[in-house]
Amino acid sequence: MYKEWTLIGALTTSGLPAAIYALQNSLLQISYKNLDSLTFSMLNRTKILFTAFFTYLILRQKQSVQQIGGLVLLILAAVLLSVGEGMGKGSSGSDADLILFHGIIPVLVASVLSGFSYSLCQWASQVKKHSSYLMTVEMSVVGSMCLLASTYKSPDGEQIRKHGFFFMIPVLTNVVGGILVGLVTAHAGGVRKASRILRNFVNM
């Protein structure tokens, strides 16, 4: 892998998805604070629809009629639940604006970015035959550089400076999760992976 590795190839296959993930995570952090857990989780699952859309644009992979029907039903369920929760929570105009602009819109933008990045990762692993392990390392390096700037003024940055980098347990879980997601995306594709997660969530 080292002999075949090039900086241009790494930036092409891993650089853009890593930068997108960094922005996506920042948007999700904003939404966490302004949405209840059910609304956030259901809106976050709309990334399945965007994954299917970008997979078609980038890889030309079409979904069957049954898959499209299933996606539409899942998205309708997510939207209906989210609208109901959002209306129940927003008792005043200012509360409704806060939920909309600092909760719903950021998580929807993050879902669009998630679908785009999933498709790029699937293209890199299935078309370019880029190793999932190598891609995880490359994305970690690029993503870390993108996020380092934000740690200077963020609460997370304060905690890291005070207690050390590995004080943040999500750092460790994301490392393991990144490798597993890469393997699943390479073998099953982004749409099937995201659909399985949503089905498990609904069954709960």
Automatic annotation (TrEMBL):
Compartments, as annotated in UniProt: Membrane
Membrane-spanning segments: 38-59, 68-87, 99-121, 133-152, 164-186
Name assigned to this protein: Uncharacterized protein
Record key words, sorted: Membrane, Transmembrane, Transmembrane helix
Single GO molecular function: pyrimidine nucleotide-sugar transmembrane transporter activity
Originating species: Papaver somniferum
Membrane topology per record: Multi-pass membrane protein
PANTHER family on file: NUCLEOTIDE-SUGAR TRANSMEMBRANE TRANSPORTER (PTHR10231)
Lineage, opening ranks: Eukaryota, Viridiplantae, Streptophyta, Embryophyta, Tracheophyta
